[in-house]
Amino acid sequence: MKISELSRRTGVPVASIKYFRRQGLLPAGRATAATLAEYGEEHAQRLRLIKALTTLGGLSIAATREVLGAVDQAHSSEGALGAVSYALPVPVAGQSPAAPGEETGAEAAAGAEVAELLAELDWRTPDTSPHVQGLTSALKELRRLDAQYAPGELAAYAKLAEAVARLDLERAAGLDDPVALAERAVIVFAICAPVFELLRRLAQENQVRRRVADGGAAAAAPQ
Amino acid sequence: MKISELSRRTGVPVASIKYFRRQGLLPAGRATAATLAEYGEEHAQRLRLIKALTTLGGLSIAATREVLGAVDQAHSSEGALGAVSYALPVPVAGQSPAAPGEETGAEAAAGAEVAELLAELDWRTPDTSPHVQGLTSALKELRRLDAQYAPGELAAYAKLAEAVARLDLERAAGLDDPVALAERAVIVFAICAPVFELLRRLAQENQVRRRVADGGAAAAAPQ
Which residues are in the HTH merR-type domain (chains A, B) (predicted)? Predict the structure, then answer.
């Protein structure tokens, strides 16, 4: 297809396609004349991934290039999903400043809590995962706010997260191509994570309203 | 207690306490001399809520004032939790621009999908909830990206969100005071939502690694 058709198919303006070409994000088309090139399905697919990473994922051109490189080298669904998961961070609300001594102690305590939880769950997650570090930071902040979970509570949340992750992976089940998988992963991280949080908020509203309406009895009873 | 003690207890600098006083966020202490005032436990509690809303919640002074007003008028746990839930938005990734005609159709379709889901779940959530609107926007975006859920999938996520919300409300169970409840709610929305998302990412990593290691058999088997 010509560049105009590629633009129409993907919803990416021609000028942006040319920009992504110059930045090395998109491979060259097959030259058919001095100023004309022919593009294929693989260009359309990659362009959709670039669009998802830069708009939904909010990544810079440099970060997008890194993710694309990792996806290209992945040759497996594991690698492609991991590259996207690591590139799109989970924002944790503002860390309050603390004295250096407090910092080290709280960090170590939170790190031990995370390691214990992962061992208890028997989750195979590499220590180098940025999400292990993110979880450690969040738990440290909860301790500092004097609002930490009891250990059992965190495990209860983790069991539910496991069930959600299973649904997530089912949604990616039909996709074998790393580029298509990576695009689906961006959508899951950017849109489906807020969808779940919105459902959680609505479920909270529902439960609070039922509790008020039924004088506290209904909320405790099985639904 | 004196303002210096109030500052020490809450970790809020004296200058900030004075600023919150001038902005009308914090009630006056009991005057003990022309330039001295005595503060009580209720001041410390409210100051912790102001701190949570402005730092963790990222709210402006004006938005914080509105939430505090709603919490004061609430006189119930329902109202206090609702005020905080509505004030702290759930960010949904960038909406792509669309033609006006497409917009109306997609909005209506997504709105119908949300209404149907809530009816099916029998959730008592007011139509005026910003989270109903947020969910509608997110589903519209999923449709536009050609990555919408099958209806049953969304219900499956909603059931898990219901279980997560039940854990959330258990964590607030011991708190009857609206101000203390509101503070806990800010922490749940700002820190516990990322914690769940981080657990979800780690669970995904675990499941992908198991699937690769066990050749696809383990992921399908019950854990």
Answer: 1-70
Please, are residues A191 and B93 in contact by the beta-carbon 8 Å criterion? yes
Helices (H), A60-150: 61-74, 77-87, 100-121, 130-144
For chain B positions 120-139, those within 8 Å of chain A (CB to CB) are 121, 123-126, 129, 131-132, 134-135, 138-139
A52–B162 CB contact, under 8 Å: no
Test the A interface: residue of B75, B114, B208 with most A CBs within 10 Å: B208
Which chain B residue lies closest to A169 (C-alpha atoms)? B204
pLDDT for B218: 40
Q: Do B203 and A164 touch (CB under 8 A)?
A: yes
Cα separation, B189 vs B198, in Å, equals 14
Query: Which residue, among B176, B183, B188, B186, has the nearest Cα to B76 in the 3D structure?
Result: B176
Sign of CA dihedral A119, A130, A87, A56: positive
pLDDT in tens, chain A (223 residues): 899 999 999 889 999 999 999 999 999 888 888 888 899 989 998 998 998 888 888 889 999 998 898 888 876 777 788 888 888 878 776 655 555 566 677 788 889 999 999 999 999 888 888 999 999 988 888 887 777 667 688 899 999 999 999 988 888 777 778 888 888 888 888 888 888 999 999 998 888 888 777 764 444 444 3
Distance from A220 to chain B by nearest Cα, in Å? 9
Within 8 A of B85 by CB-CB distance, chain A residues are 201, 204-205
Domain ranges of chain A: 1-90+176-223
Residue B57 · residue B66 · CB < 8 Å = no
- A171 sits in which H/E element: helix A151-171
ipTM for the complex shown: 0.83
On whether the B1-90+176-223 domain is CATH 1.10.10.60, my answer is: no
Cα separation, A132 vs A86, whole angstroms:
11
Residue A221 has what pLDDT?
43
Quote the CA–CA distance of B189 and B217 in Å, as a whole number: 37
Q: Determine if the pTM surpasses 0.80.
A: yes
